[in-house]
Backbone:
């Protein structure tokens, strides 16, 4: 589960990946490789199937390839999303992720 000398996914105190997470990630990469226009990519998975962990892996891949990504999540799930990312990825990596929240519509967004 070590990507390089500085990045390890899973391990003590973290969750383990399931085959379905890796298959989904593989399918995303295959889609990107096979199409010219990937400006809109939707990954639809069943509730409880581990979408957050697939997003976490994708964030890590984007970061290591020096690319950026935008992941849209409902504002009410922002804190849960961050906690879930820390269940898989190194805390130092997750702490660098910027979560933008709409302060105008949600006065508690910065809490």
Residues:
């Amino acid at each position: 589960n070590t990507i390089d000398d500085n990045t390890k996914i899973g391990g003590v105190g973290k969750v383990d990946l399931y085959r379905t997470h890796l298959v989904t990630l593989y399918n995303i990469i295959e889609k990107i490789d096979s199409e010219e226009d990937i400006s809109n990519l939707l990954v639809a998975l069943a509730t409880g199937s581990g979408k957050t962990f697939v997003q976490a892996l994708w964030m890590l891949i984007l970061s290591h390839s020096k690319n950026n990504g935008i992941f849209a999540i409902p504002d009410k799930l922002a804190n849960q999303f961050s906690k879930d990312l820390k269940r898989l990825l190194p805390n130092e990596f997750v702490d660098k992720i910027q979560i933008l929240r709409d302060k105008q519509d949600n006065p508690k967004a910065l809490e």
Remarks:
- The CA atoms of residues 14 and 77 lie 20 Å apart.
- The mean pLDDT is 78.
